[in-house]
Give the backbone structure.
Amino acid sequence: MHRIVVLGAGTGGTLAANRLRRAFGETDASITVVDRDDRHVYQPGLLFVPFGLAHAEDLVRPRGHQIHKGIEYLVDPIDRVDIEASRVRLDDGRELPYDVLVVATGAVLAPEETEGLTGEGWMEKMFTFYDPQGAEALAERLRFFEQGRLVVDVVEMPIKCPVAPLEFCFLADWFFQQQGVRDKVEIAYVTPLDGAFTKPVSSRRLGGMLEERGIELVTEFNTGEVDGPGGKLVSYDDRQVGFDLAVVIPVHNGASYVTRSPGLGDPLGFIPTDEHTLQSTVSPRVFALGDAAGVPASKAGSVTHFEGEVLVENVRRFLAGEPLDASFDGHANCFIETGFSKAMMIDFNYDTEPLPGRFPSSVGLPLMKESHLNHLGKLLFQWFYWHTLLPGRDIPGVHSAMPSAGKDWRQAADEEVRT
């Protein structure tokens, strides 16, 4: 019987384990999932908490309840991985031998790595909404914020869900209009990128949307220090951005056990991974998906879902001694909440910019366009997350490869000529 160990019971680990159980049954493979705690957070919902549109406690469920019968689930921190001996050592001393290891321990917030961020003013005038505690504390602060300068700052890339800070800006614009104080609140978006987003076409579109809403865009700002008492961000090249309230997306690293495991990860704790097969480049027995994987795709839940299909097939092929499937194309799609019960959707991959059109076909959701239908799609996704994505079920008409149907490919040709 093959021994498969999955590290992490978040989005990637849960859907991968459930898909693997379906692929192998209970007689051909033993599957063990390990995580440090039993709290599974629906992270996309954290965006809504600061604005009173969701409650953090409603976004959390036990991890074990999402894992199928026949999968062993262990709650214990991971000490390290020995890739030479093909063993995982847990904090309590247990060792788990494996034939295949799936790393899905995500990305970890590291606010302490930015000078001053967790010092005076932390959770008083500097917050993050990327964890439940920060989102709830920020909700309380926003209730009484009626004038001043709100700055949304991305300290460093990569981050989980790269569009979430932009969504926060759009929702803040809506929120303060609803409160009747928008004319008294300045909003600025500060990013280390040279535009509003990582892809040039959507970056221009999103940058234009910020401008339309009177939101300042500060680019190529690499935050080196957050001065809480002085109310300012300081970049490594000594530029400064003042604030009365700072919403900071902190540095993201891989899980700490990765750096304790010789040869397993890169200096940031992510797993060097083949971007098409999802097999690690450090050991053929190791695969990675989700935020833990060092691939040039967005660290977003949709990417993890699409990766899961290819990863499970490649685990099967590896154990059968067959050539791996190199078909993962970096497919990502995101709903971008824009306020006033509207959202925009983008769909792209490694090689293709977000394009206008429809997803997943010509009769689907509108792309690169704000609509109420997309807003409903974003809200409905929470149900799909718990009942379809995590259980490892397929969504009809949605596959790992980016669909070409429904897109306006004339724009792609125009952009190619332009560049």
User: Anything to note?
Assistant: Residues 301-320 form the longest helix (20 residues). The CA atoms of residues 81 and 88 lie 5 Å apart.
